[in-house]
Design a protein that fits this description.
38% of the residues lie in helices and 16% in strands. With 440 residues, it is an alpha+beta fold. It binds 2-acetamido-2-deoxy-beta-D-glucopyranose (5 copies) and calcium ion (CA). One of its GO terms (cellular component) is fibrinogen complex.
Length: 440
């Protein structure tokens, strides 16, 4: 209750100032407009007094208005308390008016409203009354202060609760799910090595009524790269994916493909969320689906790239996880292996790991003065801004201007200046995942 306590203090100072001036000058009236404006509770001398300080006082008390936080069980209590305080103030006001009347009675009419010294006995009574009032106002002020402190405390608690609930619960659930997944996986592993009967049961097709991803189709003998329906989370929906059953043993669930520029990848948050394109040619599977696929099992990521000179290279990351939309589809990638270079962890300043997803209409990047998604015409886990972007524009040949094409910063020769300021483009790009424990 800073303002009120300051007020009380300044009222006291004002009163003291009044006494002082009155003692020194018989006719000066106390006027302090700034203090009057700033100070809703005032106790002041209304004119000259005798040297003993016996003089009438006026106490001005404003109506009370205190703003309270909502949604609080204790709020009604606080409210009643404030109501009580209000009533106290009113009664105080009233007794103060009584006091004023007494003061008026003792006023010398010949002096045109200016206060004159009161007769001795009446003056003492007034003085006592003023002290009473003073202590009552003091008490009131400290009561108000307590009430305000309590409100502040409760408001603080409320804010903390909000923060805990909103920000941390999903994080917590995510980590628990990841933990459970790894526990289940390790139990699975133990079982298939130690329990031959279980193994027989497992090899029956009935065990695979739910296919979580393409590796499950591979396990039951599917060997053709094609569309398959998967259900990564039994509680959630199933959807079609394209399975690559050839690359490095097969069993890959394809998340993204660029082959001919037939699909426009300059899209907004909503499109990247649900996915777009044609699963047999160019597409983005969709961030929600990628989240479901990567939270149900520990996944590895493989990226395949081919340039217009026919050079084909790949990058392998031994972990790949995309968080939920609530956590803005944050990317988690593990250690690199492969031939294309580790462009996702390019340097200290260009690192896509742990970055949020950004689209031209949703800026979650680390570039403070603009939106990387807007500048580079795509949705991606931008840093500030990029050392890799597989969702850039599809250029059918080298291009000039903003480097907003498909880009992999560790590609051989890509950072060397080309005559005319041309930039290299890519003919094909593909991202796909497979469970870490999968053995083709
Ligand atoms: C009292 O105040 C008046 C007006 O402010 C001034 O003219 C006068 O000189 C003061 N008298 C003393 C004794 O300070
Ligand atoms: C998973 O949970 C178990 C039991 O609570 C705990 O001992 C283990 O450290 C957790 N593992 C991880 C990776 O959080
Ligand atoms: C792709 O879509 C964006 C946004 O709708 C649009 O501005 C752009 O012209 C499109 N590009 C092509 C090649 O159609
Ligand atoms: C299904 O998954 C989506 C995307 O992660 C999520 O938003 C939704 O709440 C899930 N639904 C259920 C029933 O779990
Ligand atoms: C990278 O992969 C190759 C081929 O699978 C393997 O021989 C090599 O040990 C891996 N390197 C690292 C650092 O994991
Ligand atoms: Ca930004």
């Amino acid at each position: 209750m800073k303002p009120a306590s300051w007020c009380w203090l300044s009222s006291a100072v004002l009163a003291a100032y009044g006494l002082l001036v009155v003692a020194n000058n018989e006719t000066e009236e106390i006027k302090d407009e700034t203090a009057r404006d700033a100070c809703p509770v005032r106790l002041e001398s209304r004119g000259k007094c005798e040297e003993g300080g016996q003089c009438p006082y006026q106490v001005s008390l404003p109506p009370l208005t205190i703003q309270l936080p909502r949604q609080f069980s204790r709020i009604e209590e606080v409210f009643k308390e404030v109501q009580n305080l209000k009533e106290m103030v009113n009664s105080l006001k009233k007794s103060c008016q009584d006091c004023k009347l007494q003061a008026d009675d003792s006023r010398d009419p010949g002096r045109n409203g200016l206060l004159s010294p009161s007769p001795g006995s009446q003056g003492e009574a007034d003085d006592n009354r003023v002290r009473e009032l003073e202590s009552e106002v003091n008490k009131l002020s400290s009561d108000l202060k307590n009430a305000k402190e309590e409100i502040d405390l409760l408001q603080g608690r409320l804010e903390k609760l909000n923060l805990v609930n909103m920000n941390n619960i999903e994080n917590y659930v995510d980590s628990k799910v990841a933990n459970l997944t790894s526990v289940v996986n390790s139990l699975d592993g133990k079982c298939s090595s130690k329990c031959p009967i279980q193994e027989q049961i497992q090899s029956r097709p009935v065990q695979h009524l739910i296919y979580k991803d393409c590796s499950d189709y591979y396990t039951i003998g599917k060997r053709s790269s094609d569309l398959y329906r998967v259900t990564p989370d039994p509680k959630n929906s199933s959807f079609e994916v394209f399975c690559d059953m050839e690359t490095m043993g097969g069993g890959w669930t394809v998340l993204q493909a660029r082959v001919d520029g037939s699909i426009n990848f300059t899209r907004m948050w909503r499109d990247y969320k649900v996915g777009f394109g044609n699963l047999r040619r160019e597409f983005w599977l969709g961030n929600d689906k990628i989240h479901l696929l990567t939270k149900s099992k520990e996944m590895i990521l493989r990226i395949d790239l081919e340039d217009f000179n026919g050079v084909k290279l790949y990058a392998l990351y031994d972990q790949f996880y995309v968080a939920s939309e609530f956590l803005r589809y944050r990317l988690h990638i593990g250690n690199y292996n492969g031939t294309a270079g580790d462009a996702l962890h390019f340097s200290k300043h260009y690192n896509h790991d742990l970055k949020f997803f950004t689209t031209p209409d949703r800026d979650n990047d680390r570039y403070p003065s603009g939106n990387c998604g807007l500048y580079y015409s795509s949705g991606w886990w931008f840093d500030a801004c990029l050392s890799a972007n597989l969702n850039g524009k599809y250029y059918h040949q080298k291009y000039r201007g903003v480097r907003n094409g498909i880009f992999w910063g560790t590609w051989p020769g890509i950072s060397e200046a080309q005559p005319g300021g041309y930039k290299s483009s890519f003919k094909e790009a593909k991202m796909m995942i497979r469970p870490k424990r999968f053995k083709p």
